[in-house]
Amino acid sequence: MHIRHLFELVLLAAIWGSSFMLMRVTAPELGPIPLITLRTAIGFFTLLPFLLHMNKQHQVRQYAWPIFVVGMTNTALPFVLFAFATLTLSAGMTSVLNSTAPIFTAVIAYLWLHERLNAFQAFGLGLGFIGVMVLFSSKGSLSFDSTALALLAALGATLMYGFAACFTKLTLKGVSSLAIAAGSQLFATLVLIPVAIPLWPEQAISTETWLATIILGVVCTALAYILYFRLLEQLGPAKAISVTYLIPVFGIIWGMLLLDEQLSFWMIIGAGLILLGVGLTNRRSQGC
Q1: Is residue 39 a part of any domain in this protein?
Q2: Which helix (H) or strand (E) holds 182?
Q3: How does DSSP assign 12-64, residue by residue?
Q4: 135 part of a folded domain
Q5: Which member of 61, 65, 199, 225 has the greatest number of CB atoms within 10 A?
Q6: What contacts 24+ positions apart, CB below 8 Å, involve 142-148?
Q7: What is the pLDDT along the chain (288 residues), one digit of tens a residue?
Q8: Residue 222 lies in a domain
Q9: Quick check: is 189 in a domain?
């Protein structure tokens, strides 16, 4: 791997890792749905000039329905669920839970696309599941409280990521990744706007929250997509997916540095098991 590609992978992980910290800061003031509506709208309008420059807008129209489904399952719903989770969970914890997406992708590919799982992958799924259970147990009780609900919301988001990956493989093969990214942000915005309007906060929004939301939309959504799809094209899926291992690292670092979050022993154990499980689950050359 060229040093430039390694730098871009680390940069992408740092950007995506910061998104959990930014949601942790902005979601309490804006609310999950208004926040994500702003995020997807800003993301779309940032991607739009690139889409027009590459003359790929016709693909958004041509593949409107499958891109709409991806927009719901890979953007609108999981983004809202993660924003909801950050109302309770730390940025570090949500970034760790985000890393379970490849595990859900492997399970859905096995059940839906009938892709085979080797022994390493099956063992990896088991380790990932144990890691999630460790995180659940780290909250101190087995009661169904706000923390448990937030944990389930985050896992629901990664489950949708897994579905979206397999659905994209089935229905959008050969379609420009830029068209998928921009179109999914557009459809997510259009669906969320009617829900966000009545939920818009009554109080004035602080300058800090506006700034963080703009960064979330421009940098963590639009530019991150462009960087990721560039790496996907130049390195291929097997190497580009390695960003999954780095995102929790940066999510934890940003949370500790900027939000004064604490890293517990059980969080380290759970994160380690999940990441090891992800690594074993990805032991194949092809997948969703």
Answers
A1: yes
A2: helix 177-199
A3: HHHHHHHHHHHHHHHHHHH-HHHHHHHHHHHHHHHHHHHHHHTT-HHHHHHTH
A4: no
A5: 225
A6: 146/88, 147/88, 147/89
A7: 678 888 988 999 999 999 999 999 999 999 999 999 999 999 999 999 999 999 999 999 999 999 999 999 999 999 999 999 999 999 999 999 998 988 888 889 889 988 888 888 889 889 988 988 888 877 655 566 788 899 999 999 999 999 998 998 899 988 998 999 999 999 999 999 999 999 999 999 999 999 999 999 999 999 998 888 778 777 766 566 677 788 999 999 999 999 999 888 888 898 899 888 888 887 653 444
A8: yes
A9: yes
Type of residue numbered 240: A
- ∠ CA 200-204-208, nearest 5°, is 105
| Distance of alpha carbon 76 from alpha carbon 275, whole angstroms | 25
Q: Which domain holds residue 241?
A: 3-117+143-264
Cβ neighbourhood burial of 50 (10 Å; 0-12, 13-18, 19+): middle
What tokens appear for 7 in the block? 């730098």
Residue 139 main-chain phi, psi, to 5 deg: -75, -5
